[in-house]
C-alpha cells in the first residue's frame, strides 16, 4: 500500500515539475523571426530589428510586448528576462543624445543599464499574410482572407541552364532553398529541353569537353519564380548543386504583385450581420471605443481591415467592395471620405494590434518549445477612456 502511495506521489510530483527551459543566443530567435517576417518587407520609415543588445548574447528568458516603455523594461528586469520582443520599435529616428529627456531615451538607457536586449518586428510582420492582419481576421471570425493591397517588385524570376542528366538534383536543391513557390503551390517551374554551347579558355576547368574546343551539351532551361529575399539562398543552392564551373543563369525582376505580401486584408463573415451588431461585436472583442461613419447598409458581410494606422488604404477598401473598413487613427476630415460608399470603423491603434503579442508568443513557442517565453502584464496603451 505504501509503495502505491509513494508511486502516486512521485507521479504527481513529476507532473507539476516545470519543463526544462534551455538558454539560447539572441541570433537564433532573430533568425527565426526574420525568416517568418523578413526585415526587407518593412516599410521605408520603419526601424525593425535588434535595437539594443549583442546578437551573440545568451538569453534564458524573453518578454513579449506590443510596445516598449520604461515599465516594460522594469517588468523584464523583475522577471529575469534578458530580451524584450515588441511589435512597435522604441526607436524610429536617430538618437543624438542619451540624457533621459524623453521616454524613448529613458527606456533605451534602462535597457542598456540592465543588459536587456530590445528587438522589434513591426511593419514586416504587418505585411505578411500570416501576420498581424490575419490575427485580426481570426478575432473577427472572417473567412477567405486575402491581402487588401498586395505589393509589387517583390518577386524575381530565375532562369538557369542545367545538363539534362543532373537537372533533377539541381531543381530539387532550388526548391528546398525556397524557389518555385506561387501562392498556395510550391515546386513550381517551367522547363524546356535544348542544346547549349560553350568553349573554355586556357584558364578554365570544364566539367565536360576539352579546353579550346566548342562543346555541345544537352541541357534544360529551367525557370522559377521566387521571393526577392530568398534570391541569395536559392542562388547559392543552385550553384552548389550545379556541375558547371560557370553557371549560366538570368535574373528578372517582375512587376507581378505578391498576393501574400502587402497591407491590410479583406474577407467575409460566415453570415451577414446587422451593421450595428457587427460594430458591437468588434467593441466586445477588441475593447476601447468604436468611432464609425453613417451605417449606410443595414447588413454587412465583406470586411476590410488594417492593423495600426490604415487610413491610407481606404481607396483599396472601397475598390474591394467591402461593406466595412476597420482600422485606426482616422482624422476627423478623413471620415468624410467614406462618402456613403463604405462604413469606416476606427477601433483604436492599441486595440486592433493588441493580439499581436499572442501571435508572436504562439509562433516562437511552436519553434522553440523549451525556451522560456512570457507575455507582458504591463498595459501599454497610452490612451484612457471614460
UniProtKB/TrEMBL annotation:
The UniProt record gives the binding positions of a divalent metal cation as 87-88, 126, 349, 353
Give the domain of life.
Bacteria
Species annotation: Owenweeksia hongkongensis (strain DSM 17368 / CIP 108786 / JCM 12287 / NRRL B-23963 / UST20020801)
Q: Which family does it belong to?
A: Belongs to the GTP cyclohydrolase I type 2/NIF3 family.
Q: Give yes or no: UniProt keyword Transport.
A: no
User: What is the recorded name of this protein?
Assistant: GTP cyclohydrolase 1 type 2 homolog
Assembly state and interactors?
Homohexamer.
Molecular function GO labels:
metal ion binding
Endpoints of the signal sequence? none
